[in-house]
Design a protein that fits this description.
This protein has 16 helices and ten strands. The chain is an alpha+beta fold. The strands form three sheets. The protein has a four-stranded antiparallel beta sheet, sandwiched between helices. The longest helix has 28 residues.
Length: about 400
Amino acid sequence: MAPPGVGKTQSMPEELSYVLVTPYSIRKSRTGGIVARLLSRSGLELVAGQMLAPGRELVEELAASTVTETDERHRRTQELIRDYVLKKLAPSPTGARRRALLLILKGEDAVLKTRTVVGHIVNERTSGETIRDTYGDYLVENDSVAYFEPAVLAAPDQETARKHLALWAKYSETDGGILEDLIPFPEDAPVEKTLVLIKPDNFRFPNARAGGVMDLFSRSGLALIGFKVHYMSVAEAETFYRPVLDVLMDKLREPSGKRARLAVEGELGVPIDDATEAQLGELLGPLAGRNHWESIVQFMAGTRPSQCPKEKRNLPGSEKCVALVYQGPEAVRKIRAVLGPTDPSKAPSGTIRREFGQSMMVNAAHASDSTENSKREMDIIRITENNLPPLINSHLS
């Protein structure tokens, strides 16, 4: 008999890791490409995220814990990163805070896998294999570093990752959230905030789709000011899509009547007149509309309302989405133009739903259709909720 454990696959404990997308990468609209590369190549699960505007205290604590290497070559690189953090992540000389995006990842060997995908910054090959190889810059002139941009920050080892994760949790309330007051706009600009949901079909397995969706949204020229990984409860999905129910019940009356007429005449050989067809539509349309609506709720939350026990209606569902908040002039119109119409087959080339959508329900993303609905929808998913501390602290305890 084999000793205990021999011949069995031993699963490694799951770790948390992080990637911080730098203010420069965000300004240059490289966020989507970075997210696509990170999720598709690491195989890790994106479990949380938050927009940050680091203050001086956070920056100084992060910088103080950055240099850990004893090897001279690697230590020099970490010193470059430390100096970068102090100069480029901190508030500007005028006191203006800079936007960064924190992503929290989970999985086996998460720190090592994250670091492998991120890559180094010194002596990278120019093959585009790593994030820093593609999006970072390291320029040496006369034996000194003339320009340095790491594109993202990531921990080199587990111990440093734990220290930095504790920092993100500590400062997430004061230095993170919806960063709506950071970007100056002309006084007469029609500035709006709008909500986007990257839908669950983009997270069935680790892939580049979510990053691709973000990349196309960046074409709007709007500023990304909010980010949250969210699992809709059934109750939230019901409230979120409640306006759709009446539309579906009304919209499906006529087609339901026609289909019922064809079925009865074809299967039973009973002739149906127009008046009876209309009656069948009045009877079956609301039923078909509710059935389709329940399918939408199930797609977003994981369970049909009619099959969800009362005590579980308010619990987080099984399906993940990512909520994004964009800000800028005419934000609602610009985002919806990039998104495209509900039916992917009717969406123009280059729109998100044409590129990534599959059907009228599985269509990659949702975007608010008015500033009023944007506020309503943000409230439903609690966009300002800070879920980083409980996630990180439970992992570190």
